[in-house]
Every structure is written in structure tokens, then in C-alpha cells.
Amino acid sequence: MNTTNRTVVVTGIGATTPLGGDSASTWEGLLAGRSGVSALDQDWAADLPVRIAAAAAVDPGEIIPRAQARKLDRSAQFALIAAREAWADAGFQARAGEDTSVDPDRLGTVIASGIGGVTTLLNQYDILREKGSRRVSPHTVPMLMPNSPSANVGLEVNARAGVHTPVSACASGAEAIGYAIEMIRTGRADVVVAGGTEAAIHPLPIAAFGNMMAMSKNNDDPQGASRPYDADRNGFVLGEGSGVIVLESADHAAKRGAKVYAEALGQGISADSHDIVQPEPSGNGIAHALQNLLANTDLKPAEVAHVNAHATSTPLGDLAEIKALRKVFGTDVDHMAISATKSMTGHLLGGAGGVETVASVLAIHHRVAPPTINIENLDPEADADIVRDEKRALPAEGPLAVLNDSFGFGGHNVALAFRTV
By three-state DSSP, how is residue 196 classified? Predict the structure, then answer.
């Protein structure tokens, strides 16, 4: 099939996050302004500089059968749970081929992770040191591979058009969704299951992030620790989970009578080329991604009613994003309701773009923006309309668009856009 520039739509959503074990409970938690952050009660956390995290509300071991779970890293378990929900939500009754409404050769998966099977790698190394080589799991390599979540989701749904795993740190999930949109738009696939996942709540990543001063050390106030745009913000809170959507060509969705949440307009991508960790403080790199988004789509600034901001609660990053929005959209930013959902979910690293895409799509579908919590003293340089404390209704009529921004160590910038249908 040589069809290009096809319209792409979202037909299914799924999630498992610190706020709930599915997309509905996650969305309810976001609208309620509920924090998913808590104190770490494991013995290994006692001596760490950071002793808080946003663990998944429902442990994947409660959902994935034990025989299957022992062959999957926690990140892949999360991805499978979210993908199964999204697949069913899209109306598919079985894997591709068995459900004749989708051809396996026209189905792809793009599930990203920023770190991959890090807990498998570290845990199996401990076993090697303590118990010897014969006790190392024979499943270790396929469990720790960064492409394991995408591959396992591909096996689950019988995807043959391509199984892909972009790795771009905390922008990975958003880049996966952008890649999936292009797979459909350029004719490589009719349906793609896409999103991000992460499971890195382990002493080594926490110690490493903490020692590089990237994470909040507000151990005495876990639920108030993630505070984007607050003048006293001091770093992100690590979260875990997955967010996955089903993307489909509009024609394919119409032929099978699928419900449609939103149109996926496209992506804008850029790189800062500034620092391996720090964002470019003026926001120029982010601005280039936003400009590329506008150049590659028919998005109009006046349509953008909502922004799900990357806003991790770091001093430089939160403001760089606001500056970039102002550079590109000028006074149009004044009518954009900006939400920082990481204030509730924590930062899911490579899973963030997936979960925040789910939130973005639901926001314009239901025409309501989730709040940003924990802003007690708004940073005066946060020159934008931040949705604070309470959810906010978006315009009840007319087309609405939402931006979902994701940025990652290494200077990766990804901006996604979705519009009501």
C-alpha cells in the first residue's frame, strides 16, 4: 500500500499507574488531584538520600499469571497490562488474524522504555554474585532487553508490520507514539499499539538520580514533593507504570465502526545539543520541536486549549518549557490551560509520554483539564495559565487541540498534538 498522509485517530487507551490499575481509575485520580507518591518502606530504602516514590497502585503480579510473570521484567508486565486494556477498548475481540477486522501484516507495536529491564539486570547480577552462575535465570536476556515490552506486546496481538522501541530517555514514550503515527500516515500499517513503560524503583537508580541532584528529597512530605512550577520545587519523584494507546488510520477505524477518541495530528522532534543532562535554559530546542510540529501538521495555535506539560518539578526544566511555548505561540499561550500531571503520578521516565498521552486524549475527549497540585508559591517566571488545585472545564463547543510535551536527558524534545473529532 502506497497511501501516504492518511488521517490517524486514537481508538483505544490503556494505563496502569501510581493512581490506578487502569485508565479509568488513573483518570479519576488525575481529576481528583490525588497524589500517588508515598514513602518507600523497603529495608533497602532506609539509607538512601531519597526515600519516596510513586509506585504502581496495582502490582502487576496481581494481574499477570505467575508462570508468565517470571519470564517478564516488571516494565514489560506493565506494558502488557496497559496494552491489553487499550486493545480491548479499541474493540478488538482477539489477536490480529483471529479478529478478522485487523490484518497481522498491517499491525505494528511501538512501546518505549527509557531504561528497559534494569531491575532484572540488577537482581540477576545479585543472584550471580550471591548464588553462582547456575542460579541465573535463563530468561534474563529477553527480560532485560529494552525492546522486550514492545516485543511481548507484539506477540500478544500478533503484530507483523514492525515492532519498535525508541530509546530517548524521558522522551521515549512520546517518541514511540510519534513513530507510530508516522507508520500509519506513510502506509506501513493500519493499526499500531503504542506507548511507554518503566519500572525503575530500585536502590541503584534512586541513589544515582539522588546523587546527581535530580530528585526531590522531601522525604517527610511524599505527597507534596512533586511540585511543578512552585518556587520551592527541588526535583522530580520517580514513578512507574505504563500508558498505551491504539492508533489507527481513520479509514480503517470507520470500516470497522470503531469509536474514536481524537485525531492524532503528529509530532515535532528536535535536539538541544546543549548538555547530556541539563535542558537548554532558553527553551530554544523545545521551541524548534514545537515549530516542527506546526510545520508538519495543520494545527492552528488558536485551537490549542490545553497543554499536558513535561514539567517534572526541576528548577530549569519547568521554565524552559514555558519560555519555549511563549517563543512559538506568543499571546496564544494565554488561552492554553497548562497541567503538570507529574505532580500526581511522579515521573515515569520512558513511560511518562505514554501515560500523559492517555491523559491528554481524555482531556480533550471529555473537555476537562486535570489540575496541577502542590503549587503553594507559584514561580513568578511561570508566565502561563497553570491549572492549579482543581480540574478545569475546557471550551464546551468547537474543535479543541492538546499538546503533550516530553523531554529527556541527552537533549531529546518531542511534542505531540491531538485534536477532537
Answer: strand
Catalytic residue among 164, 252, 288, 347, which? 347
Specify whether 366 is catalytic.
no
Q: Which residues, given as ranges, of the chain have pLDDT below 50? A: 1-2
Q: So what's the pLDDT on residue 1?
A: 38
The per-residue DSSP string of 99-129 comes to: BTTS-GGGEEEEEE-SS-SHHHHHHHHHHHH
DSSP of 204-260, one letter per residue? HHHHHHHHTT-B---TT-GGGS--TTBTT---B-BB-EEEEEEEEEHHHHHHTT---
**Residue-wise pLDDT tens digits, 255-288:** 999 999 999 999 999 999 999 999 999 999 999 9
94: which residues sit within 8 A by CB, 6+ positions away?
Answer: none
The span from the CA of 235 to the CA of 252, in Å, is 43
Output the CA–CA distances (angstroms, integers) from residue 64 to 11, 71, 159, 261, in the order listed: 24, 11, 20, 28
Distance CA 248, CA 365 (A): 17
Give the Cβ contact number of residue 182 at 10 Å.
Answer: 16
User: Pairing mode, if any, of strands 52-53 and 304-308?
Assistant: unpaired
Q: Is 139 a catalytic residue?
A: no
Residue that has been written with the C-alpha cell 503520578 in this structure: 345
Angle between the N-to-C axes of helices 23-32 and 352-366, in degrees from 0 to 180, rounded to the nearest 10: 70
C-alpha 118/C-alpha 114 separation (Å) is 10
374 neighbors 356 (Cβ within 8 angstroms): no
Query: Of the residues 170, 202, 365, 412, which is catalytic?
Result: 170
pTM above 0.70, yes or no: yes
Out of 252, 306, 310, 412, which one is annotated catalytic?
A: 310
d(CA 337, CA 387): 6
- Phi and psi at 59, nearest 5°, equal -65, 135
Whole-number pLDDT of residue 4:
67
- Quick one: pLDDT at residue 88? 98
pLDDT of residue 5: 79
Measured at the alpha carbon of residue 62, what is the angle toward residues 57 and 64, in degrees to the nearest 5?
115
Q: Catalytic residue at 170?
A: yes
